[in-house]
Amino acid sequence: GENVEQHPSTLSVQEGDSAVIKCTYSDSASNYFPWYKQELGKGPQLIIDIRSNVGEKKDQRIAVTLNKTAKHFSLHITETQPEDSAVYFCAARLLTGNQFYFGTGTSLTVIP
Amino acid sequence: DSGVTQTPKHLITATGQRVTLRCSPRSGDLSVYWYQQSLDQGLQFLIQYYNGEERAKGNILERFSAQQFPDLHSELNLSSLELGDSALYFCASSVTIGPTGELFFGEGSRLTVL
Question: Dihedral angle at the C-alpha atoms of A38, B25, B33, B20, nearest 10 degrees?
Fold first, then answer.
């Protein structure tokens, strides 16, 4: 099966700085890579996703990049705000599979 | 609000007991996934159902079982509970079974085994 590794496990940044979270995957057949944000006491919520035929996708202050050759993808958050503090999960899904394989999560703290 | 409803939100029970967690997917979603999230752990996939049929199985223990009913709600049954089963259990739903489709998560059921 697919194996998704995520780094770092914890990340602290000053408000206004950028945050980058990186994930690698093992199966080249994976073609869909979503990112989820989990706020305290809530379930994960999709914030952005990218498919394997695209190298980069942006949505306001967040962006995701994908390098299929190296099998890694990254989440970039610019101009961080305290409300960005949460646990972020990356995931990968195989073209033919039903499962989403999640990374172990990154706890992001934005310091005001 | 994701539209996915999980009950109960919190559950405290003793070792050796059996509990049932319930999930109502978003209206129109045919696929239901169950995940376990332990302390400092990521989301461990347990099992997936699509329109009443089991479609994928992850690291689900034999003491655990699940089913999806004709009205598409799903139940996760955990039996012979052990201390290590204490975790947050999430249900997620999606419209499709194919390689695309956003997962919508419920707020989870927190199980504490004493």
Answer: 100
| Residue B26 banded pLDDT, cuts 50, 70, 90 | very high
Comparing alpha-carbon positions, the chain A residue that sits nearest to B90 is A43
Between chains, do A45 and B92 touch, taking CB under 8 Å as contact? no
Nearest residue to A5 via CA among A76, A111, A102, A108 = A102
> Under an 8 A CB cutoff, do B102 and A49 touch?
yes
pLDDT at B99 over 80: no
- Six-digit token pair at A59? 């949505």
Residue-by-residue DSSP string for B16-65 = T--EEEEEEPPTT--EEEEEEE-TT--EEEEEEEETTEEEEE-S--TTEE
Give one DSSP letter per residue of A47-70, joined into a string: EEEEETT-SEEEETTEEEEEETTT
**Measured distance CA(B112)–CA(B18) in Å, rounded:** 12
- Amino acid residing at B41: Q
